Amino acid sequence: MIRTARSGAVLEIVIDNPPVNALGAEVRSGLVAAIAEAEADAGVSAIVITGAGKFFSAGADIAEFGKGMADPQLPEVCLAIEHCLKPVVAAINGTALGGGLEVTLACDYRVSAGGAKLGLPEVKLGLLPGAGGTQRLPRLVGVTAALQMIVSGEPVSAARAAEIGLVDIVVDGDPLQAAVDMAGSSLSPRPISTAPVAGDLAEIDAFVAANPRLFKGLEAPKACLEVIKAAITLSGADGFATERRLFLALLASDQSKALRHAFFAERAAGKIDGLPNDAAPRTIARVGIIGAGTMGGGIGMNFLSAAVPVTMVETNGEALERGAALIRKNYDATAAKGRLTAGQVEAAMALLHPTLDFAALGACDLVIEAIYENMEVKKEVFARLAAFAKPGAILASNTSYLDVNEIAACTQRPQDVLGLHFFSPANVMKLVEVVRGRETAPDVLATAMALAQKIGKVPVVAGVCYGFIGNRMLIPRQDNALALVMEGASPEQIDKVHTDFGMPMGPFQMTDLAGVDIGWHRDPDRIDTLKDALCAQGRWGQKTGAGFYDYDAKRQRSSSPLVASLIEEFRARENITPRAIDDEEIIVRTLYTMVNEGAKILEEGIAQRSSDIDVVWLFGYGWPRYTGGPMFWASQVGLAKIVAALDRYADRAPGFAVSALLRDLAAKGEGFA
Ligand code: 3HC
């Protein structure tokens, strides 16, 4: 865990705790012991602390949080380093995050490798830097630069760190020798804690005014401001005490528990239970996409951006040209925002091969079908594809709902077939549901997971059922939202409950964005439902300027009097006397019912673990991360409360058959694992 070695009169202390050199109990006590050893040894004149491998340290061991951490605590470790009478130099060999960076701040000098990233990401876990970082950083780099790092949680490069004074020297390659040389050059100790803070309270106000979105719905960023204020206004000791108090309060908060859950859930989702060890991924050198629509193009962009060549096939020349032009337009828009260079755009576009020749798919190692949702057409395409595709090529459907086993059955190579369900816009949204068919081969699954990670996605394995994980859970939510409108709620009220909860949009705003006409029978004379009525009037959502809401040319939303009167008409038609519906009922019927569906998904083995369901909602639908995802949130609310509420509304609207698993866990007083 902690190794020491002598280089002349310099003691090298190496943090060696793979995979990321997290600062668990043994590392903390080892660091304190090594510092004491150096203090006691008259032959040691200076100390260097570094990390083994590619990380300096990723900070505190997050898995220890909430379990009662053994002494010494990290603030004490940092104090032991800072109080050491011999100079201590940090050799930042690689990424230093959170408590890892705080250890370097307790050192007197910092030498960094050019490729290292330095950051205080605690806020992303609902915390604040709790080992003196909030008190030392503003003293070292000034209030504004410290605010930027602590409140955003974003790391800086070594070059930027040198610019703001966070590190003294940046070197190419391993900084250990440079640090040892520096330590051996009769340095004096230079503790940061006793230096004055460079900056004032006005910088905090200016930062808050310039960055409102960093604070939305979140507790930790506000607490970060408070501790930086304490660094400016209080004595050193009181500042450190304030940091400790607020850190411990955040550690116990629901938001931090949820964000820590999300951190581990995201990493667990990439693992497939029971996959044989010999399921080595297949090589994917070229990807084929069938369909040059918005979805096909968006999917293709992910691969182009990761330098994987793409063959994009269409049946019609105009659609093909439009698709390729849309890809270029999207890249140009990103370049205009400064997030890509012109050279990167051209490099990506050069890898795109648009063609009308279906046989070109024969050169691809993975082909993703991204045409419209029609089983018969998809089956035809797959049967044809199976004839062209080379042996061992993986055949994937981007279907959102349809039966992947049925599609696979018409290929005579069902072991090569799976679903890859991307979320719209596919070049932006991080989620991919990897749909495992009955006969999908283990190495096909392993390939899909690895490839999805390579293109920067978060893959989640799902079994075959209507709508897989995410869209299946949408069904009770959307059905109940519509039923609630018929019973007396307004779309605005329901949407507001969802946006107040932290969702980026409510059920009706989402319908307008996706298209009210999805699944419509297209017969304007057949009006059975409110949605039929909207579609018959051309109110297909944002794309036609009107849906449940009206939209102006800039797609700004406003309430529609026409929709309000249509709703009245429909209620009258069905003899419904509208009643007042409170927000609590909306939560029960549109969110608890989703949890219930999630429990059924678990029960049926469609999802591997409840945290995978959370990941689907966090990354596919913008569920507020600070609640951890629907299943974690439900466990926090209490499953017994959820079951009781579902039972209370059991006679109303669809989706209320309570899952046996949910009922069972609730009866035992447990949550989802
Ligand atoms: N504690 C415990 N485990 C950690 C960890 C940490 N700080 N950081 C990473 N891990 C684990 C991951 O869970 C994963 O475990 P697994 O293989 O069993 O799934 C393994 O290390 C590798 O992590 P990644 O898959 O994320 O590897 P990457 O190379 O993609 O990313 C990383 C590495 C950038 C370090 C990323 O893991 C990361 O961002 N870690 C969290 C850093 C962080 O938030 N630090 C602050 C901690 S809080 C703190 O320090 C409090 C202090 O102020 C008192």
TrEMBL record:
Family annotation (InterPro entries): 3-OHacyl-CoA_DH_NAD-bd (IPR006176), 3HC_DH_C (IPR006108), 6-PGluconate_DH-like_C_sf (IPR008927), ClpP/crotonase-like_dom_sf (IPR029045), Enoyl-CoA_hyd/isom_CS (IPR018376), Enoyl-CoA_hydra/iso (IPR001753), NAD(P)-bd_dom_sf (IPR036291)
Any one of the GO BP annotations: fatty acid beta-oxidation
SUPFAM superfamilies, per database record: 6-phosphogluconate dehydrogenase C-terminal domain-like, ClpP/crotonase, NAD(P)-binding Rossmann-fold domains
Keyword NAD belongs to the record: yes
Keywords (A to Z) from UniProt: Fatty acid metabolism, Isomerase, Lipid degradation, Lipid metabolism, Lyase, Multifunctional enzyme, NAD, Oxidoreductase, Peroxisome
Superkingdom of source: Bacteria
Pfam family, one: 3HCDH
Catalytic activity: a (3S)-3-hydroxyacyl-CoA + NAD(+) = a 3-oxoacyl-CoA + NADH + H(+)
Compartment(s): Peroxisome
Residue intervals passing through the bilayer: none
MF terms in GO: (3S)-3-hydroxyacyl-CoA dehydrogenase (NAD+) activity; enoyl-CoA hydratase activity; isomerase activity; NAD+ binding
Domain annotation 3-hydroxyacyl-CoA dehydrogenase NAD binding: ranges: 287-462
Similarity comment: In the N-terminal section; belongs to the enoyl-CoA hydratase/isomerase family.
Quaternary structure annotation from Swiss-Prot or TrEMBL: Monomer.
Name the UniProt record assigns to this protein: 3-hydroxyacyl-CoA dehydrogenase
